[in-house]
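[step 3/7] fold_predict: job queued, chain A
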Amino acid sequence: MSEKNKIGRRVFMGTGLLGVGGALGWLVGRPKNAPKKPPGEKTALPPELVNKFEYDLSAYEKTDRDLLLYNEANSFPTNFQRVARMTIMPDDRILVAGDKSVKIFNLNGSMELEVPLERLPHCLYAGENEFIVSHWDRFLIYDYQGNLKSKTESLGEKVYITAIVADDDGLFLADAGNREVLRCDREGNIEYKFGKKDPSLKNPGFAVPSPFFDLKMASDGNLRIVNPGRLRVETYTADGRFQSSWGEPGIKIDRFCGCCNPAFFAFTPDGSFVTSEKGLARINVYDQDGNFQGTVAGPDMLITDRSVVKKASPDEKIGLGFDVTVDSGGRVLALDPYKKSIRVFEPKTTV
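[step 4/7] structure written:
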């Protein structure tokens, strides 16, 4: 692992450990007037207090079949040792990044092309005639024959790219390292950035506890951006002005739980949201206004063998999520980070 990646991981791990440390300090903290314990004597929480603060998610791991809107129809291996991200191409072929390459698959699972990379890829964007792949702090543009069209230098020492969208004039990059969105041209020249708390733009500020910070461009021309620490999806104009948000924290099926969710999201053909949460793994559907519609797959469907979680990559320390994308027929594709496979969910037919 490069020194930069080690530094990046320490930043996000440190954030998580601070939160855990604060919680533990609150649980075991003593009033100032509490009697001192004898030297060498250990202090333990009484069983009733331990049970009171036990974080039990088992009741929420079973999928309510009445809420299921999809059936799992297919799955196929990527043959990567480490999967990173996935997206759908305009012709419904599938781009998958992992190890040190990007692969193109058809929906039957056959690989059509593999494009080698010099570094580990981190996220993807598929345009009409080209795709963009990022490393931690820079991006490269390829045509669909695998020819490199351009690449940038580093965009900054703390830049940590987690999502990309493009329009005719340039790119928007989610930068988890600086907790902001960068607007740049195709050569990587940064034109402006936004995301810090700014009353003049009504921006609440992005809270990004870990490197999960997704964004997409909606059909109305506005950006939809996950504010992961606030557990919601926010709408911004292209020049970075906050418009609205939806999403609430909670363990219930229609809310987002954990420290930083949804980890990923995608749009259906009608503009609804497909969200994917890490931690309590679940993939759900919300309408354009953020109203819960139903489930694609729940925790007991996504992770059927818990032994694979223990064998996952070191990234498990900061959480793993199922990246999602949706094809033109409304099928939801999920990138399984444990089995290193693509899982295809088809909408249920209604009579």
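[step 5/7] annotate
Helices lie at 3-28, 47-52, 299-302, 307-310.
The chain has one domain: 66-347.
exit 0
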